[in-house]
Amino acid sequence: MLAPYLINTGLVELLHAGADANDSPTDIVHITDIFALSPKPEFDLYCATKAGLENLSQSFAKRYAPRIKVNCLQPGPILFKDSHTPEMRRRVLAETPLGREGGPEAVYRALRALLDNDYLTGTSIPVDGGRHLAR
Q1: Which residues, in sequence order, are CB contacts of 44 under 8 Å at separation 6+?
Q2: Which of 11, 29, 71, 119 is the most buried (most CB within 10 A)?
Q3: What is the count of structural domains for the chain?
Q4: Which domain holds residue 126?
């Protein structure tokens, strides 16, 4: 969480300047995880840092409004790695109501939704085919 904190605070003047130049807010978008809100015990430290980043994002959303919007994307099963076994893929997709990987286009579309809407700040969008509902 230190890296996002340092990056965000280090660039805040530049972000404010960008907002002033075009008279609409600029954006910070953090990538967290659907397990930030419902952690898996086997990934405790990872989930805890993602939950912390969610909280940090909300703090920044309050601090930097109205000139900077701060939101999160929570990816789920976007692309499996070659190292994921067929059994693991089957299990994950069985827990995903839409039953498939999202692919990078799903993340891009969610990002565009955050960037294009100047009335969203302090929110998180799960991009997970509904998998967060299974937890």
Answers
A1: none
A2: 71
A3: 1
A4: 2-134
Looking at residue 18, what is its pLDDT? 84
| Structure tokens belonging to residue 44 | 């405790």
The CATH number of whichever domain residue 52 belongs to comes to 3.40.50.720
Residue 68, Cα to own-chain centre: how many angstroms? Answer: 16
Q: What is the dihedral of CA 32, 35, 39, 41, to 10 degrees?
A: -100
3-class SS at 74?
A: strand
Structure tokens belonging to residue 99 = 């039953």
> Which residues carry out catalysis?
46
With a CB cutoff of 8 Å and minimum separation 6, the contacts of 119 are: none
- The model's pLDDT over 7-50, given as tens digits with 9 standing for 90+, comes to 999 999 999 888 877 778 999 999 999 999 889 899 999 999 99
